[in-house]
Amino acid sequence: MSGEDPVLHIICGKIAAGKSTLAKQLADRPGTILISEDQWLAKLYGDQMTTLADYVRFSAKLRDAMTEHVPKLLKAGLSVVLDYPANTVETRQWMRAVLDETGADHQLHLLTPPDAVCLARLRERNARGDHPFAATEEQFHRISKHFVLPTQEEGFNVLHHDVAS
Q1: Is residue 86 part of a domain?
Q2: Residue 47: which of 136, 137, 143, 133 has the closest Cα?
């Protein structure tokens, strides 16, 4: 472990905004573990996830499991990078509950590149085939309609990352 107080790293950004790339960089720190929603969902439910409704259902199951797991890691002194999209108030409320239970420090990393940049990255990522899920442009727009920027009232320590290109 690093000897520092544990930190919960939360990441907010649209599809292909750079969340997973940032998560991997943050997880390189000593005493830090990465929990990637996409990787867990792909391993557990990949062949069963064909619709957005499937994602919502399986994501909720995984979140239920992580509700006990993440606090245990933080209480053990490990920092945790949640490579989960903290893109809705509901998701951030779950993350806030984890923080409230543990008293851990946190950082909400906000990535807001323009949609055109995200879509270009999405096309590149899909062409490479190195991501567990290949979202379509239609899915990007459909899911992006639910994206809500964090507000000051939510009480997070927000660090805005400039990832415009």
Answers
A1: yes
A2: 133
Q: What is the pLDDT along the chain (165 residues), one digit of tens a residue?
A: 445 799 999 999 999 999 989 999 999 999 999 999 988 988 998 888 887 788 889 989 999 999 999 999 999 999 999 998 899 999 999 999 999 999 999 999 999 999 999 999 999 888 887 776 777 888 889 889 999 999 999 999 999 997 655
Q: Report which secondary-structure segment, H or E, holds 81.
A: strand 79-85
The CATH number linked to 100 is: 3.40.50.300
* Alpha-carbon span 78 to 4, nearest angstrom: 9
User: Is-above-0.90 flag for pTM?
Assistant: no
Q: Does a structural domain hold residue 1?
A: no
